Amino acid sequence: xxxxxxxxxxxxxxxxxxxxxxxxxxxxxxxxxxxxxxxxxxxxxxxxxxxxxxxxxxxxxxxxxxxxxxxxxxxxxxxxxxxxxxxxxxxxxxxxxxxxxxxxxxxxxxxxxxxxxxxxxxxxxxxxxxxxxxxxxxxxxxxxxxxxxxxxxxxxxxxxxxxxxxxxxxxxxxxxxxxxxxxxxxxxxxxxxxxxxxxxxxxxxxxxxxxxxxxxxxxxxxxxxxxxxxxxxxxxxxxxxxxxxxxxxxxxxxxxxxxxxxxxxxxxxxxxxxxxxxxxxxxxxxxxxxxxxxxxxxxxxxxxxxxxxxxxxxxxxxxxxxxxxxxxxxxxxxxxxxxxxxxxxxxxxxxxxxxxxxxxxxxxxxxxxxxxxxxxxxxxxxxxxxxxxxxxxxxxxxxxxxxxxxxx
Length: 408
What we know:
The chain is α/β, with parallel strands linked by helices. It is built from 17 helices and ten strands.
């Protein structure tokens, strides 16, 4: 990581002098004369630290500190003042400043403070990158890719469920991925080796008692809890009591409250209600449709030992504009059809031109934000759009630039 300091100082002569001092120590300096000039450089992706004067026209060093804290609480900000009064120092430290220095500051002391702050920043970013790699490689990221907030919330819930010693219920619309979510919880639970599955829809009364439960920690995924008979509910409670190593993950189109109102055994309700996860529909994960479709096509060609084909933008447009009432199951079928060469690639002729243009614009916005790592200013520049126009388009499509920042 290059040692970088964002230097914010309104006095041009002093700014030049400080910059020269830092550059002689092989520190890269990004100079700004005001808060306004500096604001675009302050983000959770900034690899360096901030050295800012406090007393400046307009917004001052405390505004710089506040913005840095809001965007990344672990971004070191070192404040400079010519007054060096105790109340100012106390305020700076209480509001989260990494350090506080009085002007003029001895060069050796300044470099020492900055190097400590830079080492701290380097460690923070290294830890974040490591955590991000681990998250990208886990089952939650693999099975439920995407940047939509609802998808991120789902992944976090699945990861949390995996490490907690609790039974849980998963609800969601038909085809949303409830079975995949249950398996993801199991896959993330490294201590649970065996995974058992059973659908209660049409299951015989002796299906549960006849299950062979391993002695080691294991997971039992039960689909269609709404179809459970009174006898099967009692049997399930018996299994849980007799086999403490067993974690039960039930699933249904209905949430637990609805199931309780429909006659779910009270004891079973409270056993499962410690944790409940809702799997969002594809309509709720609209921003993720492109990456989901790519992943499904990749799975399909891999199962056929084929090569990943080039997916035409027109097909992505169709994916984004179509409704998917069957959710993941329906989209997977469409992906398999494309992988087999059975899908007509152009968008259906009866789709209005305005809808096609709108969908294509959305694709371009998302692609550009991904390429620019969620940096709205850079994305707007790449598309040749004024910032206001760019932000208006994001709002119209329900997009947020920060959702397309890579976490590591």
